[in-house]
Amino acid sequence: MLDLVAKKLFLTKGVGVADDKLTSFEFALRQAGIAGTNIVLISSIFPPNAKLIPRKDGLKLIKPGQILFTIYSRNQTNEANRLVSASVGIAQPKDRSKYGYLSEYDAFGKNERESGDYAEDIAAQMLASSLGIPFDI
Hints:
two-stranded parallel ribbon, alpha/beta, 23% strand, Pyruvoyl-dep_arg_deCO2ase, 27% helix, arginine decarboxylase activity, pyruvate, single chain, lyase, 3 helices, Pyruvoyl-Dependent Histidine Decarboxylase, Chain B, 3-stranded antiparallel sheet, decarboxylase
């Protein structure tokens, strides 16, 4: 049986600006270093025993044309000077043999820090609820 459980994960980011959504997304993927892959969006589980590795190490593992399973957040606007943000938050249990969560969040009018903090809160809330621990964002 094919083992598709990730052993290593890394975070990356990119921004793309163009006249159309598809081209701006391509430019963001290029800046993120993953444009040469076939991206498959997956749900938000941080696998048990998986390691979060540095971006530069993760990018070295990617091959052109590879199917790349991703969890990503994305936001777009066609309004000049509109503040947009998109972020992925991570929450892992102390016992790394258990799974954790990644959460996607996007917003208008929030900066990078605000969006990132909220994404982490969402991931922490999902993890806490799976462990039966109360958590209030």
